[in-house]
Fold these 2 entries.
Entry 1:
Amino acid sequence: MTGRAEPAPRRPADVGDADLPAVRAAQADPAAFDVLYRRYLDRVYGYAFYALGDHHDAEDATERTFLAALAALPSFRDEGASFRAWLFRIARNTVSNARRTRWRRRTEPMPDGFDRPAPNADPAGLVARADETRRVLRALAELPDERRQVVILRFVDGLSAREIGEVLDRSPGAARVLLHRALRDLEARLRP
Amino acid sequence: MTTRSTPERLDEAVETLLAGERPAVDAELRPLTRLADLLADVLRPMPPGPRFEADLGRRLAVEGGRRRVTPGRLLAAGALSSAAVGVTVTAWAMWRSSRRAPALSHRLLQR
């Protein structure tokens, strides 16, 4: 197994909706939405980036997601679905629209330039890691849409199976099965 | 004792990995868990540029300010809509009376 140089600060799954106080505050005063924006910017942007493979498209999708979330926030109700599942549902719709638009424009997916090497890493290791990263991202980009989404939501955004189910309109069990199939598919594609 | 399905066990192993710990898995799950570890390493959260972050933050603040409902804004909106209704009703009444006047005089002349 590979060691993780910088553990990503992902939240533990299924800990209840810790965002509710901030959501209530933003519903009472939209200026307080800033807290939620700062909390989720990296995750929404990361989701959009890995799903779209282009920084400009990801920025555009991120902007649309947060503007749509701010506009729809008064209608958010704490009825089972967590705020982050609700937010990623908006992000997913925005990304799907962007993908449809981009498909018409036909740009190349998954550019290079997002390998962030650790300082003092040896050059051979860096090259190997960059190659591995490229291979994984290329295989991820080739996955069917829903399988790619489940991998990104699970690994980039740390969403639980229950939350992924809420985003993708599936049961938690179906989300787990989807993740299992996605990883099997990805593993087969990466096999030499 | 209930037997958990492979997707359930895999999900639990992924959860453990994402929490920064090493899961104990059987031979069946080992290749997928190894891949999950690689994915957790490669697919890190991706921060956008600071300029984009600041620009969007400003735009959301402006949008938020526009959506803010204050008592003063409610009063002003109420006053404006009352005035708009008053102006509309008056204009309609004037228009009706101006349409009726020639018709009435026309009837009087015909008598």
Entry 2:
Amino acid sequence: MTIQAPVYLDYAATTPVDDRVVERMVECLGREGCYANPASSSHGPGRAARGRVEAARREVAAVLGAKPTEIIWTSGATESNNLAIMGAARFHTDRGRHIVTSRTEHKAVLDTCRQLEKEGWQVTYVTPGPGGIVTATEIEPALRTDTVLVSVMHVNNEIGTINDLPPIGALCRARGVLFHVDAAQAVGKLPVNVDTLGADLLSVSAHKVYGPKGVGALYLRGSPRRRLEPLIHGGGHEWGMRSGTLATHQIVGMGEALRIAAAEQAAEAERLGALRRRLWDGIAGLGGVHVNGDAEQRVAGILSVCFEGVEGESLLFGLRNLAVSSGSACTSASREASYVLRALGRDDQLAQSSLRFSLGRFSTVEEVDYAIRVIREQIDRLRGLAPQGGEDGREAM
Amino acid sequence: MDAGILDYSGEVRHRFETAPRHGRVLAQAHERLAGGAGEPGKGVRVEFEARVRNDRILECRFRAYGCPHVIAAASWVAEHAEGRALGELDWLDPRALAATLEAPAHKLGNLLVVEDAFRACVAGKPAAAG
């Protein structure tokens, strides 16, 4: 089999739209398609579009173990996180102005919390426990009588670890605190059930599971009776909590993507787990390679590792035939080490030489073997270029 | 990721891939100079070795830990040092080197480390003959 470079190993960043999803989406585009405004209930085409939207809503709800009315369409997980956190905080101001989250959340959560801090809320950022996993042990001491919301992600997007959410959900329920889960990296990779997790709010995205970009959903327990303060006004769509004409083709794509992902999840997890172990076995022998985060409690397809003795930018350039994510935020002026890896205690050198390999539906054994070969070549070469302990008495790296 | 963060010039790509003048010199102690600068923990460490005779650099080699610009710069310096007198340092100008490599302005600090490493090398004293 011929390998076509670059080999895509960045499925945690985004995924290609599955052909089966494309087929459903195309049915909603073009003059012959189901293109009418789903809010136009006065005519047949509008009602047909509404029917497709509601069918997709039922699909998403079924995947999450929710009621269809508890699903609010958004533009993606970032908006879902914003709506969940800001919407809940602003709606429940009378209960208090304190939020608890973790240091290793996605920026869509952290930056939203920072914004609320500017508006007068207080936020406690807890440090994850061993292996980068957030548990009730870290959350409980942070709770206060005025805590309104706890927000913890299900699967960490950088290192792939799975947080221990059910006890956090139970703790929140016992304390009367809302519990928000960013499940963007979990849906399709794990069974996700809002009751099992004890989630009151849960954010999902389509493009992480072979659906289109630009669409997501927020689960809100008890909706539409339970309310959030909307971020977007005008039109009163989604029970007044998220206005804007519904993008039928995007929503239909999301419904189909989540349906497929849930149906294939168990078999896919087994296949990806085997590929991930093959990748790890192939590079561990280099020595000086460390897994970031707990080695066991993680989703099947994500392997985050750091390499001793290689500089991050050179590593990334040396591996340019592999589409992977680095452990640093690259900007034109600097390479800032990942805040997630630093929260795990990695020093700057290791954080900057970290790579996230994320495997997905179209990853193959041949691609993994190619990646192993390229990684071994480049790590050996870059380590060979580096000083190994100089005449001035420096330690070898 | 910022567009262009891995967008290197042809010169940098060539030197990063092939690393001309990488390694160590084979020389008698009295003909060998060595020196380095930088810290791996800060992202750059460069070391040079030179084989010298009659105060002239006959051969120069580098080893480098750093970004592709650092590796390319160290390679370029080692190559252009050969044949020059030890006291001749005017040719080594980090700003001119940045222009040669088409390195962005924020990489100048890294190139200064390369310069420091080379100056440390040529400032070293060879072991006494014999």
